[in-house]
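[agent] plan:
  1. take the single chain provided in the ticket
  2. run structure prediction with default settings
  3. attach structure tokens to the ticket
  4. add a short note for the reviewer (M.T.)
[agent] executing step 1
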Amino acid sequence: MKIILNLKPAQSPMEAQEYLLHALSFPDYYGKNLDALYDMLTTWSQPASFVLRLPEGGDMGAYGKKLRRVFEDAAAVNGRIHVK
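[agent] step 2 finished; step 3 output follows
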């Protein structure tokens, strides 16, 4: 399954996390931080190919790089997911 995540409109890390919460149908207890995202992705049970469209520049550009790294690190652990 291909999942396109368009985070470019996010203006803050919290907006990005809110987007991920809803876009990926995470449970209500999702912690809305990078550690919680890693936990959710490493236990993702369905095969998925994530296409990340991340913000560029400024603070969100730096956060976007961290988000990509979390997805890549989780994919290295969980063979069911891939990142583009």
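[agent] step 4 note for reviewer: The CA atoms of residues 25 and 80 lie 17 Å apart.
[agent] ticket updated
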